[in-house]
Design brief:
Length: 375
Amino acid sequence: MGWSTHHPVGLIYYAPQQSYRGYTLTTNNRGFHANLIDMEGRVCHRWHATEGIGYAYLLPNGHLLLRTNPPEDADGAEKIGGSSGALLELDWDGNVLWEYYDRFIHHDYERLPNGNTLVLLFELLSPELTAQIKGGRRSDEDPEQMFGDKIQEITPNGTVVYEWRSWEHLDLEEDIICPLEDRAEWTHGNSCNVTPEGDLIVSYRRTSTVGIVDKASGDFQWKWGPGEINHQHHPTWLDNGRILIFDNGFHHPRGSFSRIIEVDPSTNEIAWEYMGNPALSFYSQAVSSSERQPNGNTLICEGSPGRIFEVTPNKEIVWEYINPFFVTGANRNNPNDLSNAVFRAHRYGPDHPALEGKDLDPARYANLNSLYTKV
């Protein structure tokens, strides 16, 4: 299934009475800009980074915290989706205020209340451990050392004050790679955030596992997913104590479809679910996110096709937008392909502190907003 060149982009639908009004932040996967758009789909502010912006979000002070595009060389990790060379913090005008370079940074990070930053990184595993890891599609090209995932907490000056190594807490008999994946890496972590108590919420795509890790001991408090979800992204804590997850549905045994689920970690019961109708109408094999809004709606980023939409608790679509900005280089199999893929999207209400006193007049970007074509 593919889109013609006549497929509409930009704002598709908006129901003002039912939507959570605000500004939505989007970034092209392996692009160079972050765009803040209003409910009409107009760019109201834009940042640029010469090293690329693979993913970004706003801090309460109005700064943009981002990860760059992949480095030139990271012992092969640069070829893995989500690879980045650095974290940058930009002010509203795009000036770099803080930077942290590590060629093994990937996917996710979180600025903590104490000013430190959690960072997700790759590390090569030993040949001995690599040989013991089960699953995956074996071939003559299998590396002697797989990549594993670790989380570090760094201070503003770059000092590492905490480290959690996933492989020291995983189970060789339980944490098995999907048989359709290669053996370049064990888990492919794609999310790194925290609970209100400061414990770690992790997501491992290759083993279809999400978990809550006690930060002090490093042990899993909750671990769930195989047989229930498939290659998921972006588990986040909700105020009701449940976990919201974008279940990509990649390699699903009953076909290709995505869904959003709200799971109770105390019972493993799914309390709420959103699917497309028909199911295939909502599908992103990679990237993507879901975010609960203050009014109870859910903002969904169907990342691979660049579709962002908002649904009510009753699963009615009340806002829909197709990213109109296209870049090359996002498709590793065909780097000349144009792509409007978005890693994640976030919405900020008009009273969010990051937007206080900011000029959000879309007229400043009139030429950009009039294009809505491939750029």
